[in-house]
Structures are given as structure tokens and as C-alpha cells.
Specification:
This protein has helices at about 65-90, 90-95, 135-150, 155-160, 165-185, 190-205, 245-255, 260-265, 270-275, 280-300, 305-315; strands at about 15, 20, 25, 30-35, 45-50, 55-60, 100, 105-110, 115-120, 125, 165, 215, 225, 230-235, 240. With about 325 residues, it is of the alpha+beta class.
Length: about 325
């Protein structure tokens, strides 16, 4: 498991290219080469490290873009790995209940004045993208249950370190998110305004809900890796203590153009549970609207037509007993 004695280290630097540097060694691992995940906008740099036995690991380094935000998110990911493994070590029932689910080990941290690098275990497997839709839905659902159970075991020390995103925070952020969406899509003002109205009307239903838990918030298919019968969940960069409905809403908007997957997900026990309980349903609806408008203005990680289609669908979604 995670080395509890990880400390700040000050190592020599190895020039990779330009003004980017990776330490020659992090613990027993030596720098091999940089690699590029293929993202159009990279806020972090990545490198491969290897120990004397050939075991590989991945370094993720803040590259000084958006100085405060991206360093903040990388620090959050480091804290998440540390606290998750500490809690797993102290609660054997987590491994007993979910023996096939794992979180990569944090192998080292290099922190200097203007640099922050995290070294994480490399998982050699395949993402859910390579599996059938039935298996994708089944494994994703079980991954959500695993994270929920793991979150239920977090102690106050862990919760004090990890980022918190309450519904009050979402409500406070919404005017800014709404304004950005309108500025980005002025011709679609009426659709966005309708989303804002429905969001505000329904927000009162769950404004004071206390049902927060550990949520990955980026649990797309590429962040779930299978290796034989084992499943690894990676990339906890934006994980937070927040409303559990974030997990499912985030996946559905990202996969919205894959109708076969979304239809299968709609029929899953995970979604059926959301539809049966009123608070869970409205949490899911409100956060779906929020995420759609957030993607239209603040981040734009998915095509706008996909976000608008998703928004229209969830604006019309009604609770079965209303």
C-alpha cells in the first residue's frame, strides 16, 4: 500500500524539452521518457519511470499553466490517493466486500517552490471502452457502489483534507456558470434560461440535504481499467465530498451521443434506485441541468449540440409520483 513516510524531496532536474523538467529519480524509480496522452489542451505533463526490476510508474507534473487552479487540483489528487489508501488500510471490510476493486498506489511526490510532481502506479490493462455495453454498465455501476462504500468509511480527518462541494456551493456557482453559457450561446438564450428557471425552482427541494459522500466526478469509461477479474479506478484529480448524483450525471452527459450505452444505463439498477427516491431523483435532475449549462459555458469539454440535447431531455424529466 501507500508509503506513509513520503516526504518533500529536493532532487536534481532533468531537462525534458523547453522549460519542463522531470526529476532523474523519484524514490527507486528512474526517469525514462515523457509521453503525451493526446489531449488537445494539456494542463499537466506526463512521464514514464521505471525501477531496477522493470516495474513502470507514471509521473504527473503540474506544468505551471493556470498556476493556482491546476496546482490545486494536482494537490487534491495527491491528498485523495493518500487518504483513500490510509482508510483502506484501516478498514479491512472494504477489501473483503470489493476484493476485485483497486486504487493505484501513490509511489512518490516531488514538491519544490515552482514544481509539483506525483508518481503513481502504472496499471497495464484495458479501459471499459473495449468491452461490451452490458459489461460497461455492470462494471461502472459496481465502481460507483465501491466508491460510495469507500466514502462511507472516510473518517473526519480524511473529510477535512478532501475538497467539499455542497449543494450550497453549486447554488452559489450557478449564476456565474449561467452567465458564461449565455455569453457563449446568445442565440440559445431561451433554452439556457429555461434551464436556469427549472434549476432554481427545484433547488429548494434539496438545498439542505446532507447526503454527501466521496465522488470521483470524472468516472468516465477511460478512467476504469480492467485487468483479468480486477478493476482499477484512476485519476482522482477532481474528486470531492459532494452529492453522489454527480457521478451518474457526469457520465450520462459525456456518453449522451452513445444512445445504446445511455439506454442500457437507464435500465440499470443504479438508475432505477435514483428514480425511486424523490431526493435522489431531484438531486440527479438538478445536477444534470447544472453540468449541462456548465459545459456550455465554463469548460466546453463536449460538443454544444450534445450538451443542449442532454439539457432538453433532463428539463422534461419528471418524478414518477409527481
Amino acid at each position: 500500500m501507500i508509503d506513509s513516510n513520503l516526504k518533500k524531496v529536493n532532487l536534481g532536474r532533468l531537462t525534458a524539452r523547453g522549460q519542463k523538467y522531470f526529476p532523474p529519480k523519484i524514490g527507486v524509480f528512474s526517469f525514462v521518457k515523457e509521453f503525451y496522452p493526446g489531449k488537445k489542451v494539456r494542463h499537466f505533463d506526463f512521464a514514464i519511470y521505471q525501477d531496477e526490476k522493470g516495474k513502470r510508474s507514471i509521473a504527473k507534473q503540474w506544468n505551471k499553466s493556470c498556476k493556482h487552479i491546476n496546482r490545486y487540483w494536482l494537490r487534491n489528487e495527491i491528498n485523495a490517493y493518500r487518504e483513500i489508501h490510509r482508510v483502506i488500510d484501516q478498514n479491512r471490510q472494504i477489501e473483503q466486500k470489493y476484493p476485485n476493486f483497486h486504487i493505484p498506489n501513490l509511489l512518490g511526490v516531488v514538491q519544490e517552490k515552482d514544481e509539483l510532481t506525483m508518481l503513481i502506479e502504472d496499471i497495464d490493462g484495458q479501459t471499459l471502452n473495449n468491452l461490451t455495453i452490458e459489461k460497461q454498465v455492470a462494471i461502472f455501476s459496481e465502481a460507483v457502489n465501491f466508491i460510495n462504500f469507500l466514502g462511507s468509511k472516510l473518517d473526519s480527518a480524511a473529510k477535512s483534507i478532501l475538497i467539499k462541494r455542497t449543494m450550497r456551493h453549486i447554488a452559489a456557482m450557478f449564476p456565474f456558470v449561467f452567465a458564461l453559457a449565455v455569453i457563449s450561446h446568445p442565440c440559445k438564450f431561451l433554452n439556457i434560461a429555461r434551464g436556469g428557471i427549472v434549476f432554481c425552482i427545484n433547488m429548494s427541494r434539496i438545498f439542505n440535504l446532507k447526503n454527501t459522500n466521496l465522488v470521483h466526478r470524472d468516472l468516465y469509461l477511460k478512467h476504469i481499467i480492467t485487468k483479468g477479474n480486477d478493476v482499477w479506478i484512476i485519476d482522482f484529480q477532481i474528486s470531492a465530498i459532494t452529492n453522489p448524483a454527480f457521478e451518474l450525471a457526469g457520465l450520462m452527459i459525456f456518453m449522451w451521443n452513445n444512445r445504446d450505452f445511455c439506454e442500457a444505463m437507464e435500465k440499470s439498477p443504479l438508475m432505477e434506485e435514483v428514480k425511486k427516491e424523490k431526493n435522489k431523483f431531484y438531486s440527479y435532475k438538478i445536477l444534470s441541468i447544472y453540468i449541462a449549462i456548465y459545459n456550455l459555458g465554463a469548460v466546453k469539454t463536449i460538443p454544444s449540440d450534445q450538451a443542449f440535447s442532454y439539457l432538453r431531455h433532463y428539463l422534461g424529466l419528471k418524478y414518477q409520483n409527481d
